[in-house]
Target: D-alanyl-D-alanine carboxypeptidase/D-alanyl-D-alanine-endopeptidase
Amino acid sequence: MIGLAFAAAAVTAAGPWDNGQRKAEREHAAALGRTGGADHQVTGRGREAAEAPGPAPAPSAPGVLAAASAPKAPSAAPALAPALADVLGPLLDDPGLGPLRTASVVDAATGEQLYGRATGTPMTPASTVKIATAAAVLSATGPAHRIPTGVVATPDFRGITLVGGGDPTLDLPRMRTLASRTAKSLRDRGVTTVRLTYDTTLYQGPVIHPIGAGNDNIAPVTALMVNAGRLDDSTEGTAPRSADPAGDAARAFVGLLSEHGVNTAAGPVPGKAPAKGPALATTYSAPVPALVERMLTSSDNDIAEALARQTALATRRPASFAGAQAAVTDRLKRLKLPLAGARFADGSGLNRADRVSAALLTTLLVRAADPAHPELRPVLTGLPVAGFTGTLSGRAAAGSGGLVRAKTGTLRGVDTLAGTVLSADGRLLAFAFLAGDTPSASAARPALDRLAAALLP
Model:
């Protein structure tokens, strides 16, 4: 009953979410308390090799930090640290975590290290690198930034160009609205037949992620796509991907224009938009904070690569893998983060050349909780909730459902977890556990979940 009471109090303190999400969490937390809290990990589709899927991204929960981020009396920390060492040490030695294990636990309000093992050792982070991508783009673009997709005309309005701005969340309803507005603008000028080109030149460098072509975890990285190049009706998780998402988007646009009375005499073909052509219509993504939350909750690789490139564009660098790496590194330096040995070869974590330390991940979470950096708050509110949302929807060690928020990371032989919990005295703790050469995800994930759950009262 004590555990149930704490669970209910923690969920209530986290603040309301839309569409009954909090009510569902309270009911599920109560169910966990009644049954004694079994391990609810399940295997399913995922962004990475076998990462579990989840429902639609959770709406922002700003109340979480309003309840948890106020500094507590520092006198409690010395008593907590030895207890953590006694509890976490044996759990971190679980054979399921393989031979390479690092860990960091800090007080998010003060930054004080409460537990650590090889905290500065660079490790392959898998999708926990998305925490770095999130912090970088939030610091570079600002909360109001949206990614545009537009249509520009030639001076005589006989030719139009569909211009990709790098929005992987563009879907058919928004594309249909874009076509409707474009067609109306053309018909108002007496134009019903046009030549169509499509412009993806905003992005530079390789289109195929280093993981390779034809991978269900990510589409070719291009500035124009619909539904992230998916060839099925899914909106998250692995899916067959188009080999030419930009061309597919342009061909879909042709059909949508025809539905509104505008036909194409030629095209679609690749081309660059006229430099001073009149804009006919534009559609915008959700604001960057919402994209960050969606990326973190469902571990969306396509959004992650797009946000890394938005960071590059915001800092006047090429929108490429190399440009994004330079931009993300620069933004994190400005946040005074421990970057020794860090490398951001991509934004999603699919690249095994990525390197981060446990100390870097926990410091990122500390920055996100810092009242001096409200722009970083979506880094925390986007974290999946154990047993409820995103890649943690099917994962919760005994008693941790609804009480652990964390970003998962999985590649073959790599398993990681980084996030936050509330301590017994109400302090927000940031943690990061990274394991390499793990024998299997089925062995490593429960071990990581037990580590996070051990931080709870």
